[in-house]
Design brief:
The protein is α/β, with parallel strands linked by helices and about 700 residues long. Helices cover about 45% and strands about 15% of the residues. The radius of gyration is 31 Å and the shape is globular.
Length: about 700
């Protein structure tokens, strides 16, 4: 098509990046799908990212212009750098944590061409769950509209013209029209207007600059339009941490800067003071609320721990609850302080409220060690002597209550896809079939920490139907996804980025619009998966540790003792039942036969079992308990099969194992070896207990 001089491009897309390279990969891929016949340039300004963004992205996208800053100069100033070198008739200012549709550029260019009085335009923004984002169109924050938002009236009356003026809540999300303010996530400008404005006001480091730019656009007499006929996904601030004090201060400072710049001359000193005080109060309350959310979980755990100590104190000494304060000596509060201190320290060590927030074993270790620490200290400090009975039952009960709660979270939280050791698998639907589908299936299966159930595969629009791909059934096309999600109770959708267009992705998300459904996208590179607020890499074990945890003497000692004590206990308790089973097996089958198996890499051993195995199931299980007790095999270990040349050194065969409980989802030898390697590298007695627990509850 013909390009008007002096412009060399139809559209210049300016993107400021800060440590979100994975989201930017997805965005650039979606832009490349939407270019069509237009002459488009992409300009990425990197604000001194620490994740190697420029090196990573420049090798993948040779058509992108990269500007690397040596410092984080702020959102507005970085955008101005891109604006200055842009050559397009139109300039799209776009956030890196977005995804655009295939028709986005064509719709926006057509709208601007047909509306010469429009200086800038925006489109519909969708949240990562497909719901409408109200910040798609906003009003200029006047003191009154800001006050209603601060007081929470905007949320209470979302359709009121008075109280919802901040987000223009009375407008339907699909209603086009003129609006006062665009979202900084997507601002489609006429280049001449943007350069006449001088770009962003660089006094706004981050936040508020989009409001200021929109306000100045209308002051020049240009119109700003909301165009809902196209939409984008906005992951909302993945490059910032909104619960940090820096964010709260920066955001509310920007709000005051805007007020001071555009409204201060028309108001008295007293009114300006009231507005400033309101902003400070709002900033303080926002930080307090976000901080409370962060400490609410550890605070709840501490309340339970200490409440149980009080309860068992009442039971132990038969004290009425209303006399607790009188009978509970002041010195005993030291015990509560010690318990709380130990637990807080151990929760930080085990990261109970971070990456291990769903870990039952880490929680159990923290609770038991905390109570053991209190028992040890009070044993040597007689002034604070405390009942060992209370501590013992407090430890047991705390472990059970908190463990059950974590177990529930691990299995029923909507973000539990990567919760290692979950009993209830996450139901996943994979959308997109291509030459890379096999690779995706293998990569997902090889992730040891993902417990899932692949419900099926979806064929994208225009592709030929197939019945299955590597034992996974194809159950529908993209237009059937909303119905299939409801019918199969799907919890997560994974889109194969190289196969499914951004149009199809956004259409599916818009139709479903469910906060309980997680949407994830795998880009062309196939090395990571993008979710709502996290990025997960597929490489599970990038380096091999020379000293395997499995071979550490202390771990060997603990594993052997677990086998001895557990098998000994079961041998005694199951003896009456198993004796009858053994007698029945001798009568109906005869003598057990020798089964040869590879015990270690170069060692062959034999087990005597009745064959067929299932006809003497309990007799065989009892015999295997004896072999565990004598050390031939273990409860948890490698599969008991012949010719295991790939078994690592000192990897004893077991009745169950990490590989065995996942056997149904593994089809390639590479996938199976990944689970075995993970076991020997990350071995601990807690991992054995976890595997045994999952074997009992998962096996059918």
């Amino acid at each position: 098509m013909t390009v008007e001089t002096p412009y060399q491009k139809d559209v210049s897309i300016v993107i400021v990046n800060y440590n979100v390279k994975e989201y930017l990969v997805n965005l650039i891929n979606s832009i490349n799908q939407s270019v069509g016949n237009f002459n488009v340039e992409i300009i990425v300004i990197d604000n001194n990212s620490t994740d190697g963004s420029v090196e990573y992205l420049s090798s993948k996208f040779t058509n992108v212009v990269f500007i690397a800053n040596n410092a984080n100069v702020g959102f507005g100033k970085a955008n101005n750098q891109g604006i200055q070198v842009s050559r397009g008739k139109y300039i799209l200012l776009l956030n890196p944590d977005t995804l655009i549709k295939e028709n986005t550029l064509s719709v926006m260019i057509s709208h601007m061409d047909n509306h010469p009085q429009t200086g800038a335009a925006g489109c519909k923004l969708l949240n990562p769950d497909g719901t409408f984002a109200p910040e798609s169109r906003r009003s200029v924050p006047t003191p009154s509209s800001a006050l209603w938002k601060v007081l929470g009236l905007t949320s209470i009356f979302p359709k009121s013209k008075r109280f919802s003026d901040y987000y223009l809540g009375w407008m339907d999300e699909d209603e086009p029209g003129s609006i006062p303010v665009l979202s900084g996530a997507f601002m489609f400008f006429r280049a001449s207007v943007l350069k006449e404005l001088g770009g962003f006001d660089e006094r706004f480091f981050m936040y508020g600059e989009d409001i200021d730019l929109s306000y100045r656009t209308t002051q020049l007499g240009y119109q700003i339009d909301y165009v809902p006929s196209t939409s984008i996904i906005h992951y909302k601030g993945e490059s910032t941490k909104k619960d940090h004090l820096d964010y709260v201060v920066m955001f509310n400072k920007a709000m005051y800067q805007f007020f001071d710049k555009h409204y201060s001359s028309g108001y008295s000193f007293l009114f300006k003071f009231i507005v400033k005080a309101g902003i400070i109060i709002r900033a303080t309350s926002s930080y307090v609320v976000s901080s409370f959310r962060k400490i609410s979980k550890p605070a709840a755990d501490l309340v339970i721990l200490n409440a149980l100590v009080f309860i068992f104190f009442l039971i132990r000494y038969q004290i009425a609850p209303d006399n607790l304060l009188q009978e509970y000596q002041t010195s005993f509060l030291v015990v509560n302080g010690l318990l709380s201190g130990f637990f807080i320290a151990l929760s930080r060590y085990y990261e109970l409220y971070g990456i291990n927030k769903y870990s039952v074993t880490s929680l159990i270790k923290a609770v038991l060690i905390a109570f053991a620490g209190v028992a040890l200290v009070t044993f040597f400090l007689r002034d604070f002597a405390f009942s060992r009975w209370i501590l013992l039952f407090g430890a047991i009960t705390s472990t059970v209550i908190l463990g059950v709660f974590r177990f529930y979270q691990k299995n029923y939280s909507k973000n539990r896809f990567n919760a290692s050791g979950a009993i209830k698998p996450t139901r996943v639907l994979i959308v997109g079939i291509s030459s890379k589908t096999l690779d995706l299936l293998s990569l997902v299966r090889s992730r040891v920490d993902w417990n899932y159930e692949i419900v099926g595969l979806i064929v994208q629009k225009g592709e030929q139907w197939v019945d299955e791909v590597e034992n996974v059934n194809v159950i529908g096309r993209t237009e059937h996804v909303p119905d299939l999600v409801r019918h199969h109770k799907v919890e997560q959708l994974i889109f194969l980025g190289n196969s499914v267009s951004s149009d199809e992705i956004l259409n599916i998300m818009t139709q479903i619009r469910s906060e309980s459904l997680i949407f994830k996208i795998v880009p062309d590179s196939m090395d990571f998966i993008i979710g709502k607020s996290n990025v997960e890499y597929f490489e599970d074990v990038p380096l091999v540790d020379v000293r395997l945890s499995y071979s550490i003497p202390w771990n060997i000692f603990l594993k052997r003792n677990l086998d001895i004590f557990l098998s000994g206990f079961l041998l005694l308790t199951l003896f009456p039942l198993s004796l009858l089973s053994i007698l029945r097996a001798v009568i109906t089958i005869g003598k057990p036969v020798e089964v040869q198996f590879q015990r270690y890499r170069n060692e062959i051993d034999k087990l005597k079992l009745w064959q067929p195995y299932e006809q003497a199931l309990w007799a065989n299980r009892y015999m295997q308990l004896w072999y565990i007790f004598t050390g031939k095999i273990s409860f948890v270990g490698a599969p008991i099969i012949e010719n295991r040349e790939d078994i690592p050194v000192y990897y004893k065969p077991g009745l169950t194992g990490l590989r065995q409980i996942n056997e149904k989802r593994l089809f390639r030898e590479k996938e199976k070896q990944a689970f075995e390697l993970h076991y020997v590298q990350n071995y601990s007695i807690w991992l054995d207990i976890d595997v045994l627990f999952r074997t009992v509850f998962v096996s059918k």
